[in-house]
């Protein structure tokens, strides 16, 4: 209802006039309507989503590198985001993008490019990087507990591909749940909106349970896996979390929590790209004076 811009494609002068008349009452402060030819408008739509997908995959790749180098991707994000040429939007590392737009539009561009003999090497890498990122959390669970997860149970917070929706299309949670169940684990999941959608998607699948309250998923679980950055998950009762979990271990797929805070609360935190703790630098006395 409050778009930054409205991109329209047209090849008819009367259609352009009608569009301008239609949108005029909604953009009195400034003209948000960007009109162009049909082909350019189509490509603009796909290119915009592909650019955002590229930013996400770039940060996810940097997060994996940060872990190997002992850097903290959150500090890196703040550093590069402060450059006005880059900005802070869509620079958050996590467990991959999903939904109905980014995966579909990247695939559509790749398909269109292949049809005209113009391979898009960068977007091929974006898609591959995102698929790998969806597998990171499950791989870390396996690294910690072993390939055979029989007898293990994991709490999972977040089923939808992003907050404020029940949409589970291409959601990272689907990859994680399927991998854990395939290895013999049980999963108890919570999501503020997507539980019914998940029941339909995973109908008949053994080993997956749903709960109405986030904390109910934790009782007796070997670890908590955070997949979607819902506001309801941002400030939990950490003390209660520690008591309910069989092991005080959190796989934080959206970097919701500060590692130092988790450590102080007696919880082990495994995030995405959080390879180094924040360092407080004292101001020299001469400068302080």
The amount of beta strand, in percent, is 5-15%
CA radius of gyration is: 22 Å
Structural class: alpha/beta
Note the gap between the termini: 52 Å
CATH superfamily of the largest domain: NAD(P)-binding Rossmann-like Domain
**Main sheet overview:** 6 strands, parallel
CATH class of the largest domain: Alpha Beta
Adjacency order of strands in the biggest sheet: 5-4-3-6-7-8
Number of strands: 8
| CATH fold category name of the largest domain | Rossmann fold
How would you describe the shape? elongated
Unreliable spans: 278-289
Under the CATH scheme, the architecture of the largest domain is: 3-Layer(aba) Sandwich
Separate helix tally: 11
Tally of distinct domains: 3
- Helix content, binned percent: 40-55%
The ordered string of helix (H) and strand (E) elements is EHEHHHHHEHEHEEHEHEH
Structural summary, described in words:
This protein is of the alpha/beta class and 289 residues long. It has 3 domains: 1-36, no CATH class; 42-132, N-(1-d-carboxylethyl)-l-norvaline Dehydrogenase, domain 2 (Orthogonal Bundle), CATH 1.10.1040.10; 135-270, Rossmann fold (3-Layer(aba) Sandwich). The chain contains 11 helices and 8 strands. The chain has helices at 13-23, 38-69, 73-81, 102-115, 121-134, 136-145, 172-182, 195-201, 238-244, 259-264, 285-288; strands spanning 6-9, 33-36, 153-157, 186-190, 208-210, 223-226, 249-252, 268-270. Strand 7, helix 10 (259-264) and strand 8 form a beta-alpha-beta unit. Mean pLDDT is 93; it is low at 278-289.
